[in-house]
Structure formats: C-alpha cells, structure tokens
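Q: Focus on the shape:
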Amino acid sequence: MKIKYILKKIHKRFLNFKKHPLTKQNPLGALFRYVKFNLVQYINEKPRVYNWIDGLKFYAQKGDAGIVANIYFKLFDYEDSMFLIHHLKPQDLFVDIGANVGHYSLLAASVCKANVIAFEPIPTTFSKLEKNLNLNNLSQKVKIFNIGIGAENSVLNFTKTKDVMNSVALDYETDVVSVEVKKLDDILVKENPTFLKIDVEGYEYFVLQGAMNVLKSKSLKYIIIELNFSTLKFGITNEEIFSFLVSFDFVPISYDVQNRKIIPLKNYNPEKFNTIFIKKDLLN
C-alpha cells in the first residue's frame, strides 16, 4: 500500500515537472533530483547544503517545504519569484512577513541587492532562516525578527509542529509556543518599504489591519500575499482581504514572465496560492 502511495506521489510530481517553466524541457532531470533528495533524507535526515540560483545556497532537509522544492524545480513559486526579481531594485526595502527559512529574503537581498526586514515567529524556523542568511553572508543585508506580525501588540500562541504550515494557534490546539506579536506600523515607523510579502497561513487579514500606515505609504508599490482559503479558520474570507487591499488602491495582477508583462485581474488569483497586488497608478 505504501509503495503504491509513493509511486502515485512520484507520478504527480513528474506531471508538475512537465508543466513548470524551468523543468518542462527536462522533467526526468527534475524527477531524478526529487527522488535523490528523498532517498538521501530517508537514509539520514539531516540538513545539507544545496546550490541555488545566482550563487545562492541553502540548507534543506525533509520538512523544509518552504525551500526544498527549489532543489528540483530550480525556482519554485516561479511567477511570484520572477516578479520580485524583475521589479525589486537595489536599495529598495523588501519586507518579508512569514519569512520561513528564507526563499524570498534570499532572492531579495542577493539577486535584487535590496535591503530586507524579515519576520519569522517560530523559533526553530527562525534558526534555519538565520543559518541560510549566514551561509550566504547576508546577515548584514537582512534584519531578522523572531516575532509575529498582527493587528495589535500582544503575545499569541503559535503551532510549532507543522513545518511550513505553522500559524497562530486556534483555541483547541495545545502543542504551541508563545510569541510576541507587533503591528507592522509600529516597527516600520521610520522605514519606506517598496515591497511586502505576506505568508502567515491564514492570518493575513490581521497583519494588514496592523499595517494601515504602511499600506498608505507612497513608497509601497507591490504586495505578494497568500490567499488560499486558510483564512477561513480565523473567520475571514479571501474576498474580505481583496476588498481591503483594493480600498488602499492596490489591484491584483498576474505576471507574464517571458514578456515581462503585467496583466490586471478583476479579483484575486484563485489558480495560485499567492496573488500579486500592485499600486493602481503603476498600471498607467
């Protein structure tokens, strides 16, 4: 039964490799990297260093889903990552809320040469983020905070055993860690962010509630935000977040990477986990 499950999972991955822009020309090569990674981790589940793009490297082990897929896809979250690379400029400020182990922070600081402020509330994940930044000599370029971001300054319980799915804990969840939470407005008082990335496993609306001054800032141009219905566990819909961002003159888009073309959307992107928003006046 387990073998059947594994074969089914491998086949599903292979179909994804045949579609991804960076692996569709050689899906078997991607499949080899996928199988090799999992076999090596099965033998000895410890973090290892992997080469990435533009000279970047990262530590990865089984469970580090926020960055592991880059081993076999070369660049996961392709459309969003390439939008970041094409639009974030040197000396811009990129703010990474829910940085995980550093996919976007590494790209922003190294490839784009931007300044980065990153937030990761889970202590074990924060430690991995710190190691990845040190591995690439980026600790001076990226300011990291082991705190959560929310609607109020407080302390909240977070889950700690769900890898990239860790989030603010619900009342019935018991295996948790208490973490300080601050409003983004209070932290970025003297900063001028250009680009926000928000991936907080359903808590996105509350992050935005504590970031109204940032959203009004003339410097802020772009937002990548996760909208995948995980908001429902906190009683919030994707539509509410969409309407909230629209009220600050942000509009959703998709991005044609090959032609570097921004395509306006009428709503958030239901085909992907993330939606890119840009300031409305940038469309003109």
Q: What stands out?
A: The chain has two domains: 1-74, 77-283.
